[in-house]
């Protein structure tokens, strides 16, 4: 969970509390403010979740590229070693 998700959840709770306060005091302005704050919190929470997923996807792609590069490097070194062995063999 990243900081946007935490802030978003906090805003949702705060917004809900304002709505309850607006209901209890019959203050429609406070109730509307609470609904907007809760909605903003949901959006921020969703944004934070999307960032987390994007970071995870980037890390996965980076790891796959590195593995592919390492595999190609190992294969090239193996081919080089085999070519050197062939050169070192006496001709008949």
Beta percentage is under 5%
Oligomer: single chain
Average pLDDT: 93
Q: What is the share of helical residues? A: over 70%
N-to-C series of helices and strands: HH
Number of self-contained structural domains: 1
Task: Outline the structure in words.
By secondary structure, the protein is an all-alpha fold. The protein has one domain. Helix content is 91%, strand content 0%. It contains two helices and no strands. Helix 1 (3-25) runs antiparallel to helix 2 (28-88). It is rod-shaped.
Protein traits:
mainly alpha
Present the secondary structure layout.
Blueprint: H1 3-25, H2 28-88
Structure summary:
This protein has 92 residues and is an all-alpha fold.
């Amino acid at each position: 969970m990243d900081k946007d998700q935490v802030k978003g959840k906090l805003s949702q709770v705060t917004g809900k509390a304002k709505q309850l306060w607006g209901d209890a005091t019959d203050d429609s302005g406070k109730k509307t403010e609470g609904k907007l704050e809760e909605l903003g919190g949901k959006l921020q929470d969703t944004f934070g979740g999307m960032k987390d997923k994007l970071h995870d996807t980037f890390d996965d792609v980076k790891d796959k590229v590195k593995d592919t590069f390492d595999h190609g490097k190992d294969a090239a070194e193996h081919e080089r070693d085999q070519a050197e062995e062939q050169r070192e063999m006496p001709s008949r």
